[in-house]
Amino acid sequence: TTTETLDRLGALIDAHRASRVIFLGDLLHSARAHAPATLEAFSCWRKRHAGIDLMLVRGNHDDRAGDPPAALGVTCVDEPLRLAEAPGLALCHHPTAQPGHYVLAGHSHPCTTVGRGIDRLRLPCFHFGATVGVLPAFGAFTGMHPVVRIAGDRVFVVADNAVHALPAFS
């Protein structure tokens, strides 16, 4: 799954000419992610994308796995990350409100179900509440957890390489 995830990330960086990637936690799943094959794959990918600024907002799995090796050039910070160019926004791993800021978080790997019966699909989604937005997991290794929507929440599903808005929930 490491190669698949890195290839997808690289393609998106190239397509959008990104200069920075901020991971909202759990870059490495466990200490076993420091296995030579995993780190070699990451190292090769990093060489192809040497000009990209990589930053990790540490998550719960990063606590167990430890920071990535310094040679990979990933700046690691604790949450919340507040960027001067995005005032009012807090980048976090855990979806916990931050007074005076809108939080974008990872951690819970949100999904929702669309359709009925045999035409029912479970899809990753973006889940935006009043004070916290949770982004879908990016990695191929991750699971998904159903969102619990309340009035005013917005949900956008990811399907067929596109993002689709679901009707507002009231």
Distance between the ends? 38 Å
Order of helices and strands: HEHEHEEEEEEEEE
Low-confidence stretches: none
What fraction of the residues are assigned to beta strands by DSSP? 25-35%
Count every beta strand, where a strand is a DSSP E run of 2 or more residues. Answer: 11
Number of contiguous helices: 3
Overall pLDDT confidence: 90
Rg is: 17 Å
SS content category:
alpha/beta
Oligomeric grouping of the chains: single chain
User: Quick one: overall form?
Assistant: globular
Helix share bin? 10-25%
Q: What can be said about the biggest beta sheet?
A: 8 strands, mixed
Keywords:
alpha/beta, three-stranded parallel β-sheet, 3 helices, 170 residues, eight-stranded mixed β-sheet
